[in-house]
Task: structure prediction
Amino acid sequence: MDGYAPAYVAHNIPLLVISGLGSQSQDKPKAQEGPILIASEIPPVESEDAQVLLKHFEDSDAGGLAWNAREYSGRNKFRVKVVGRDYSLPARHAQLPQSTLPTTPISKPILHSPLSPLSPGSPLFPDGLLNSQWIEKHQELVPSAYISFYTFTSDPKLSTLHDNQIKTDINKTKNVLSQSGYKTRQIVVLLSEKSIVQSSEVEERLANIRKATGLDSKTSLFFLPPQSSSVELQAFVQTIISTIYPVCIEYYRDLSKHSRRKRNRGIIPPPTAPPTSGTSQTLSSQGWNVRYDFKLGVFAEFRQEMDAAVRSYESGYEVLLGTDVFETIASWNPRWNEARLLADVFAIRILRCLLWNGNSTAAVRRWESHRDRIRDFVDRRGRGSATYGWEAWEARWATVMAELIKKASFIEFAGFPLYLQAEKTIPIGERMQPWEYLHHPGYWYRLATRHLMARRLLALSIPEEDRSPPGSSPASAISSKAYTYDTYLCPEPHEESPLLGHNGVDHSALIIDTLNKGIIEFQQKGQTRFLQELQLLSANENMKREAWDEALKILRPLWQKMSYRREGWWNAVEEINWALRKAAVQAGDGTSIVAVDWEMMNKNFTHHPNWHYDLTKSLQGLETIKTKPTVVLHEKEVNSFLSATYTFEYPEGKVGELCSSQLAVKSSAMPAAAPVTMAEIRLNFEGSIKPLILRHIPDADEPNDSSGKIYLSKVISSEISDEGRASYVGETSLIFRPGETRVFEFSTPLREAGDGTAVSATFLMDTDLFDLEYVHTFEPTIAPDVWWGTKFVKKRLVRLNAATITVLPKPPKLELRFLGLRDQYYTNEKIVLQLEVLNEEDADAIAHLEVHLLGDGVPAINLKVPTTTEDAEESQNGEDSIGTPLGRIASAASTIVELSIPSVDLPAVYDVSMKATYSLVSDLETPIYRSMAMQLDVASPFEANYDFSPRIHPDPWPSLFTHVEGEDVGTEVQAHGLAQKWCLTARYASFAVDDLIVEDVDVQILGMNGGIQCHTKQLTKITEDGLRVAPKSLEEAQFEVFTQKISLDDRGTATLDVSLAIKWRRDGEVSAVNTTILGVPRLLVASTEPRVLAAVSYSTKIASMIHFDVTIENPSNHFLTFGITMEPSEKFAFSGVKQSTLQLVPLSRKTMTFRLLPSVRGEWIGPISCVIRDRYFQKVLKIAPTEGMKLDKEGILIWVPPEEDI
Amino acid sequence: MTAIPSIACLGVIGKNNNPLHITLFPSAPLNAPLRTPLQFSLLLASTLDIFESRSKSNASSGGGLSGDFGLLHAIDERLAAYGFETNTGVRFVAVVDMRGRIVGEGGGTGKGGPSVGLREGEMKLVFRAMQAAYVRLLQNPFYEPDEHSPPTGRGGKKITSRRFAEDMKRIGESWVPGVGSS
Result:
């Protein structure tokens, strides 16, 4: 809206003049040119309260508010103008021009407003329509209310004097105002001094003033009580504003009425003096109507009645563009442009009112219709719409709309929506132009730039003769120019498109300015892609005006960050690239040039046949570049023509082994591009792999066959250490031709364990003019990783990431193994394990061994290391190592360590864990570990069960009546008690896995209870060589056990604790004899109960006769009577008592003898039904068998030997 | 002799915001595309801003299930972009020239007469046809969608199918406003 007078286009709000508050008087015209002067002698109020009040008034100024109903609703808005004490109003009537002094005093000329077309002094005289001065008068000069501030003194002595001064002053102002003819309201505010006391006296003084001045106490006279707080001060200001607001609105309504009356009058008043110049035409009545309508509209705006304003404006607009006003003005007349300007102002004000009310679609339609009507006018009556002037206006018109929308600050545009929905008054389903949805100002600025560009195009096509500055061309040419070019709100052709060496319009600057405004809008909306487009335009404009640095400042970041590259809009990328290159060439930015040239090699872009596509020529012949640039490009930043992949052949490798890997570099450069020669390719790895460097050597096995597309070169790399970093270096030809894929194969040793990943390849290019570094980061792609073979067969690698290798630690080559390990180890055996430590490394090793035995009740383990003389010193070296030093083991040699575990008593399972720590003499720093674990199962070799049965003691029982005198009493305890004989049968089984030799089996008496003596006798004899016991076989050993009570009187029960000791050895040449002791359950001997023992013996004289003796023992102190019954049997005949009674005295025994003659041979006979019953207790005594007999559940069985045996 | 809207450009944009296909159509008075291919590319790219922010607001409000984005924006009085997004993130953009075609007798200048507007949803038919054509393209076993919108999120190849291009051409040329609107 720059082209329009600010007052013409600004929104109107009631004007309030504040006088006498604060010392500052903003504009001090000293009131000389204005004849109506309000002056006062009283100094302005300058108290603290006054300052606060002033600030509140200034804050309530509504000049900067957005143009919408929302901002204005509910608040009374004023344009606040603060003046000092004095103020002058513009003259209401024009003075008579000097030339037309009254000739005749009778016909006194009628004086009009100095702004009216009727006053000869006015610029509008005689036929002008309107100019901005009129609005200025109402908006800036003539207030709707004039507020005067006075101090209300507290000094009682001076009060009367002061009050009188105030009264005079008020009355004086009142007079001036009423004489001026303006209906400005006078408001008086009295500010009391701090110390005043509210009293009736004050009331009286106020009443007095009021009376004397005739001011209404409600609406015109305000009194600020003393000592008001800041809140009260603010409320006071609010009260004043809200009280006077309706009055002020009323003021503007009166003005409206006045205008309307004049409009309705329908006659044109005669001018003060008849026109003497120009066409001597006066303004037509239609023209006057336009004036009045405009005024009505403006006053309605003052009252914030936008609907009324629109109506007035529309009516005025229609009249203006109707047949009688605009059409009648000749296009060469300056009034034509004035009328056109007025039409624009009408339209702008209509648009503002529509936007104010939220009629966004109506506003767009109005905007379009105004443009169409004006174009129609220009085409028909003006100089046509194909001129630069028209485009300039179109641009202006779009900018105006953008600014109006911005000023209206729609709440919807604060969010994302780019355009507003159609307002509710538009019927749903109506056919709408998309543009009719009001778009945000950015779009309008964009539209404006298009017109500005069109304007420039038209301007540049102006023929040269029209472009010469005035004065240098013949008059005829000037006049023809005046008819050809539309200069409405835009310069003459010689400025629009100046000849070389003349100043004129900087079109690019205009375009950039508008673009920048648009850019801000799009930025706010987050339309980054649209922004990029505008930035490119802006940069192009900068280049047009040769502001190369400016262009570069825009293009460089755009080039780096643009979304087009990421998203593959190659033509857009290309455009930006060329623009950047062009700017960079001029600005001397070598880096950008090289970067662009690098990118433009890619065949994605359009091929320009005239372009060299040779990186080495990038900076040739450019004098702007002062220093040799170093360019670093990353793969993400450019759409590079070189792409690289890196693959390891195998996913795993081991330290010390060679690993093969391939770098495949594909060039997708333009087919016409020159080959690119790299100086170096540096491969960086993450993890344990050292960097690899490829250097270019000019004529190394260069693939000169241009037909193929893939070249495999095997690169031999050597290790070097450069600045403390070791790396591998290989040399090969590094020339990349368009369309080729070059594969470099490496074979590098792996040195460290851990994961390794190829991270990036850095291509270094080194020319005389620049250094280039292109960093390609390897990223997983969707294309499968490929391993190239020699015949260019490719192998797909099915791996997640073929650029990663897992390097396993070096396998230890120190072997640990046991020599002569037995299948099974047994308890009670000393276990000796022989561990061989074998060094299979290529170098000598210094080793330490650690052995642990784990399990329950682990015995201490003993290591025996063969000691040599050199061990001692070697072991010193490895003090920090744990374990037993084994010393130096030569390569391929071994050491045998003996682990001896003492014998254990109980079977158990132990874990033997061994760990050898060693380092090679060639690399003492790296410890290598070798560990081994073994389970050692120690089992018991034998298990046994026992049978303990009674026998008849052969010796006679001692008699109670015999007394034997002890011979050597005291030295040895002589047993005198009952002696008994027992037989202990031990059946032991071998649980071993191999044959064992049992050397001896014996019973050991561990303890006796119950006062007995005891000795044993081994019955089973084992040969000298021992008894070979096979696994799982059962062996028997019998022992006789003799017990005797020490005292005859002792009849208590006695027990015997014995154990079985088996002496055995392994079946081998030299094997130690081990003793396994097996526990025997406690044996019960010597009962007081009577017992019956049966014995059998075979007659030596009479074949087949068997003696069967039954011995009844009575060890008790009682006299016992037994009944004996012997039942006959089918199997044998017998002789002896069949039925008898036997009486046994205490401590006696008796044997009954039967002779049996069995009827069978070679089998067990029985059961022998011999029943012995205790007569007294009526209890059958069980007969215990002795040797040669057995017991089944019915009775005793006797073995009858077969005939031949007897 | 009135100017009616016609399609000036049909664009298919992939999931990675990469252009898959662009067809330009001539506009009335000169019978040539209204803008250069580059300008149309930039125009299509600029709609991505709107797709992105609308999807964001749709995701939060739960709207926009149908995929039709309606009017994206009007670039100026003549050109307006309409958009559609498929479930797989492929976007169809139709740029309409509001004065692209002259109907009635005589050639005319293209400026004459009031132009016809568009109703809400009049572009649906176009998008439906475009989607059908795209689905047909996807059914081709030799068409690998991943090549065109790689999961790495960067760029992608363009559609080279001649049949698809013909389909687009047919759709763009046959569309006239007012058909199939509801």
About this structure: Confidence is low (pLDDT under 50) at residues 26-33, 869-881 of chain A.
